[in-house]
Amino acid sequence: LLACVGRLTPQKGQDLLLHALGQLGMADIDLLLIGEGEDEAKLRDLAAQLGIAGQVHFTGYRRDVSRILGTLDLYVHPARFEGMPNALLEAMAAGCPIVASAADGSRELITDGLSGWLVPVGNVERLAQAIGAALNDPAAARRRGAHARARAVAHYSLQAMISAWERILVRQ
């Protein structure tokens, strides 16, 4: 089970993910697109054109994303550009194995080969390869997911943020 969380807009790159899923040709893979947005109809049409409409599930806005993240084989974040992606941080905190585009914010969070797989922005072929690699090596995926979680806790948890603010304020 794969998922991508975010507004359904060109920025978030869900169309790239659909193309990658189509290239993989793995009929046993389901994808949850969690979120709402202006591109939903286009994305539904694209999934149908690619012959993967039965594998792609549009969930709309969900309040239980953290529960869903715990059930995933892989979280995919194919954004074309990004600030600090909260959805990616949530996936890291949940210990999800992650494939992400090397957009600015994602590149700050994920270390390729250690806490996930990073692919060039907009490169559908490399996105498909990384998804395939993650799904075909569950042990490596689990290791990377565990490292992503450790990084999220060490640098972005409430306690880590409080400690960082304390260090800043004590210096002043």
Provide a quick synopsis of the model:
By secondary structure, the chain is α/β, with parallel strands linked by helices. The protein has helices at residues 14-24, 40-49, 65-69, 86-93, 104-109, 124-136, 138-156, 158-171, and strands at 2-5, 31-34, 56-60, 74-77, 98-101, 117-119.
Structure description:
The protein is an alpha/beta fold and 172 residues long. The chain has a single domain, classed as Glycogen Phosphorylase B (Rossmann fold, 3-Layer(aba) Sandwich), CATH 3.40.50.2000. It is built from eight helices and six strands. Strand 2, helix 2 and strand 3 form a beta-alpha-beta unit. Helix 1 packs across helix 6, helix 4 crosses helix 7 and helix 7 runs parallel beside helix 8 (158-171). The mean pLDDT is 95.
Order of helices and strands: EHEHEHEHEHEHHH
**Percentage of residues in strands:** 5-15%
Helix content: 40-55%
Total number of strands: 6
User: Mind telling me the C-alpha Rg?
Assistant: 16 Å
What is the number of domains? 1
Poorly predicted spans: none
CATH topology description: Rossmann fold
CATH domain class name: Alpha Beta
Give the CA-CA distance, first to last residue: 48 Å
- Overall spatial form: globular
| Sheet having the most strands | 6 strands, parallel
CATH superfamily: Glycogen Phosphorylase B
Number of helices: 8
Strand order of the largest sheet: 3-2-1-4-5-6
Question: Which short descriptors sum up this protein?
Answer:
50% helix, alpha/beta, 172 residues, 6-stranded parallel sheet, Rossmann fold
Layout: helices, strands, pairs:
Elements: E1 2-5, H1 14-24, E2 31-34, H2 40-49, E3 56-60, H3 65-69, E4 74-77, H4 86-93, E5 98-101, H5 104-109, E6 117-119, H6 124-136, H7 138-156, H8 158-171
Parallel strand pairs: 1-2, 1-4, 2-3, 4-5, 5-6
Helix pairs in contact: 1-6, 4-7, 7-8
